[in-house]
Amino acid sequence: MRNIIIAGNWKMHKTQAESQEFLQHFKPLVEETNPGREVVLCAPFTALGTMSQSLHGSRIRLGAQNIHWEEQGAYTGEISGAMLWEMGVQYVVVGHSERRQYFGETNETANLRVIAAQKQGLIPILCVGETKAQRDAGETESVIIQQIQRGLVNVDQTQLVIAYEPIWAIGTGDTCEAQEANRVIGVIRALLSHPDVTIQYGGSVKPDNIDEIMAQPEIDGALVGGASLDPQGFARIVNYQ
Ligand code: 13P
User: Fold this and answer.
1) Check: CATH 3.20.20.70 for 4-238?
2) Which entry of 38, 68, 96, 130 is annotated as an active-site residue?
3) Which of 25, 56, 118, 126 has the fewest CB atoms lying closer than 10 Å?
């Protein structure tokens, strides 16, 4: 059986104080949520410690947004699996398009990060997705196939989440049609050897489109950027119909 996972990716938003304020409002709104839905907040590194304390005993899981492949060493600005683990982190976003676009992440480095996360007992959320130019050129499938095949070399598919995030739909309000997202996620699923990998959709997920997205048979959850910053809005997404 595939798990349903709704995750917020806060990106570079929220100080410790702001994260506490969010949790104060958000926690009561998801207490009654169907226990079959995993709720994850992928916060900035600096908020992880305080959030971990506030989430003790809660059904909300903590996620991070990057992990280095080495256990330690001279890698200024990077973070190790053990550092995240100690903070109570259970999920980590890997290979997000913003890391690929602005920080030189490749399929190969994303692969190393996925493996490092699993080695530490963290669940990687591997992000894949095509640009607008690639979509317009009819390259969506070939780009996705490469990202998945290279990203998953030597990866244990039983401890893995994939997020399909078409880059042209991120932060633009231009959501991928639910049926089209469902189709591409079907393409991804056909490439996997394990039948129960959770595959999320991400890209302008909002309270007013989540119900349609989650009604699609191939879509097992959402990775939510902007709309996860507001406690009421994100609770509505978690509590989709
Ligand atoms: P938005 O929901 O703001 O479009 O961001 C999606 C995303 O990149 C989540 O990782």
Assistant:
1) yes
2) 96
3) 56
